[in-house]
Input
Amino acid sequence: MSQTPDPHHARRRTGGWLLAVGVVALFISTFTVPEAIHHLARVSADEGTGLSGRAVVVTVVGAVTLLGGGALAIAGFNWRRSAWEGPSPEDRLLDEQFGDGPVRPYDPDEFRGPGHRDPGDRG
Output
């Protein structure tokens, strides 16, 4: 039995990879950003000292992983979501028969719980 190829499969897979890489980069940034803030605070408190080699690397890696990971995660999520399949023929048929509205309209007077009394009732 052959299956029909899904034209959106590659787009969803690419979006999934972008989302995964973005989440991993955000996870890495949870370790690098606090250390970068620590180094930057120490340098700003001690006048006349510069950033060490490690501080520069951690600051750059923290900024890149935080900004890049966030951008990749958002782009991957939207990429995946835009490739989602539309309504099925069955969904379209049901919408045609019953419309988009609720099957039964909401009536707040009908759905008051047991033991409910109106403020004007005395009894």
Remarks:
- Residues 9-45 form the longest helix (37 residues).
- The mean pLDDT is 82.
- The two ends are 70 Å apart (CA to CA).
